[in-house]
């Protein structure tokens, strides 16, 4: 074989050998240079513009932070009646005859219909009879026809405390007529002898006891709280009094705080006239007065009231947390007396909220 032929043959053998070596190295890299195996529960992603073909998508289990919210709304007192039941022009009963029951809470109806439960206070007698006014110190006796119960049933108010002074204006007969009028309208009534327990759609049970602000009743109220804690997930008091100051007195603060110490989650007061601020105390919420939602006793009433909403957070029927929020309201519209509405002006709304949180002296 000639020398040139030997050189060409040698080069050919070298190139073949080098190519074979590179091929073998490529195979070995493919086998040992990447993951050898994957968990059978994981799959590679389909090729796409956002995920290259060799990217692996791991299933990530998100923590379960979901919960259900149930809303319970508390409104102030409602004197839905006129002095001695008079229905002359300019009186509450006159407005009732002229506008019907749906007029008064029309602006708040959506709030009451979309929550889970609504309770307010009734401070008047509902009766169709001519009853003799009861003997009492103040010369005020407020009543309206039994049909006035529709003010509440038409607007989504499910329950009313009747533990108020004016529901006794016409003695036991007027009181029993009021009970009957509310029952006929499908509105639950409660007083110091009849608490309300309500099971919400979430499975939570709410217990509410209605009472007057009286030292002599304190031990009985605390006994109810202890019993309610065994039955209900959320325990509240709805307390009425006759104080007309915008600042709660020390004796009132001490008594309502003692109910918080006894285990009440929420204590809602209403003095039937003016707002008083709220506070957080020993893990409970105390609202000293929601004021008057409807005050048929006077034409020129207090300008502001608030609704309190307790938002109950739960998971699988267990209460996990509570948040409270106020809805500031005007007690009437400019040309429509006794027709409360939520405040839309942000500056005014913030003023009322600041008062309820104790940050200023006037709403």
The share of residues in extended strands comes to 25-35%
Secondary-structure content class: alpha/beta
CATH topology: Purple Acid Phosphatase, chain A, domain 2
Instruction: Please report the first level of CATH classification, the CATH class.
Output: Alpha Beta
Domain module count: 1
Number of helical runs?
8
Q: Say which CATH homologous superfamily is assigned.
A: Metallo-dependent phosphatases
Question: Can you tell me the overall shape?
Answer: globular
Q: The biggest beta sheet, please?
A: 8 strands, mixed
Task: Please give a structural write-up.
The chain has 363 residues and is an alpha/beta fold. It has one domain: Purple Acid Phosphatase, chain A, domain 2, CATH 3.60.21.10. The chain has eight helices and 17 strands. Strands 1, 3, 6, 7, 14, 15, 16 and 17 form an eight-stranded mixed beta sheet that branches. A six-stranded mixed beta sheet has the order 8-9-10-11-13-12, covered by helices on one side. β6, α5 and β7 form a beta-alpha-beta unit. The longest helix is centred in the first third of the chain and has 30 residues. The chain starts with a helix and ends in a 7-residue tail after the last helix. The N terminus is likely disordered.
